[in-house]
Amino acid sequence: MGAFLFAVIALFIGIETIISLERAVAMKILVTGFDPFGTDWVNPALEVVKRLPNEIKGVQIIKLEIPTKFNVCAQVVHRAIQQEGPDYVLNIGQAGGRNGITPERIVINLDDAKTVDNAGVRRINQPI
Prior knowledge:
Helix content is 31%, strand content 20%.
């Protein structure tokens, strides 16, 4: 529970930082989290997203659950971006084996999974 609370606090700090930098009047932030996958019944990243308020300091927080399915997840996020027109998109994810919040520093646009997704599909070294 301590790590979960830490994740919630860190996410709030991240959102507060975006808000303080922008100071926009009618800003929207889309925050996403994947549904549970593999052998996990709960995805802590999604649980953090669900617990966010709908508004922080006048900024609308749009929460979106993403299905853990290669053929669907990007479409769901793209559709939400088109419908909502957010100023920022913050994707929250779970990475097994990590014991803290670790922002991604290097992006590699490849689908490369050790396990299958929730539709039973596994992709290895495939460009996104």
